[in-house]
Amino acid sequence: MRGAPLLAKATARLSAAGIPDPGRDARKLMAFALDVAPHRLTLVLPEEVAPGHAAAFERLIDARAERRPVSHLTGSRQFYGREFIVTPAVLDPRPETETLIEVALSEPFGSVLDLGTGSGCILLTLLGEREGVVGVGTDVSADALEVAGRNRASMGLEDRAILSLGSWYEALPDALDPVDLIVSNPPYIALGEMAFLAPEVRAHEPRVALTDEGDGLSSYRAILSSAARHLAPGGRLIVEIGARQGGAVHGLFEAAGLSGVRVIGDLDGRDRVVIGTRR
After folding, report:
1. Taking the model in full, what pTM does it have?
2. How far apart are alpha carbons 231 and 86 in whole angstroms?
3. What is the bridge-based pairing of β-strands 271-277 and 179-184?
4. What tens digit of pLDDT does each residue of 211-235 get?
5. What is the pLDDT, as a whole number, of residue 1?
6. Cα separations in angstroms, 100 against 52, 143, 235
7. Labelling 257: which of 57, 134, 195, 227 has CA 20 to 30 A away?
8. Please, what is the Cα angle at 128 between 124 and 129, to 5 degrees?
9. 117 vs 21, 140, 171, CA distance in Å?
10. pLDDT tens digits for 51-88?
11. Distance CA 170, CA 159 (A)
12. Short-list 89, 70, 205, 84, CA closest to 146
């Protein structure tokens, strides 16, 4: 079969399975199966697809129809212009999180701590964008840190990024305490909201990175309880939040004594980031 009808058949299969954007996902998976750059896929669609490649593509479509995330099938996801390795051990890097990156890069910093680093996409992006900056990524999951380590190696940042196993600040090395910037995309989905997540997220991403099994705010309380002790004077704390958490997290920041607290929206106008500064 030629590529074009094979792609059309796959798109119809994903549409029937309820995939939100079946054409986009079918094209991504075909490019991956054929080992061609996505922007070159149109050029090869008129050609015959080798039986082995066609079978591989159909297996990918079967898995996607079962709501496995595209990133888990291809093993990577783009974030802030870079390709990051992704596995079921880490959250899928999301475009919304790029808002946190933009806010962090709006002011200078020499050291950064990423709490709950996961794939390392936040920490490693910040280091990649700021030559000479050093940082630490902490996580309670050894499997997540293994993925972050692979991403660190692929970006050549072994000499500037420390990955440390532990809960929040307990894994922060003394040599980098305090830091100029603390960032985090913590688990903020309330337990009662988990059932409403897309199947790709609810069934395939690490639950510990999604929810605190409570009201969705306990991670912010834990982060803020010691933030001032680990921030250098004038240092910033920046966290990602859920779209309806702006007011609550803003209040927690002020109660913790941080100044200049602001809630910042993403490109869709939804509350996405809260920032505060140590006095």
Report:
1. 0.93
2. 30
3. unpaired
4. 999 999 999 999 999 999 999 999 9
5. 86
6. 42, 24, 15
7. 134
8. 120
9. 29, 9, 12
10. 999 999 999 999 999 999 999 999 999 999 999 999 99
11. 21
12. 89
Which residue in this structure is represented by tokens 């802030």?
A: 80
Give me Rg for the CA atoms of the chain.
Answer: 20
pLDDT along the chain (279 residues), means of 10: 95 97 97 94 95 97 97 96 97 96 98 98 98 97 98 97 96 92 98 95 95 97 96 98 96 97 95 96
One-letter amino acid for residue 234 of the chain = G
Residues shown for the chain: 279
Query: How many angstroms from the chain centroid is the CA of residue 255?
Result: 28
Using CA atoms, how far apart are residues 141 and 153, in angstroms rounded to an integer? 18
pLDDT of residue 175: 83
Q: Which residue has the tokens 């159909």?
A: 58
- Distance in angstroms (rounded) separating the CA atoms of residues 237 and 229: 12
3-state class percentages of the chain: helix first, strand second, coil last, to nearest 5: 50, 20, 30
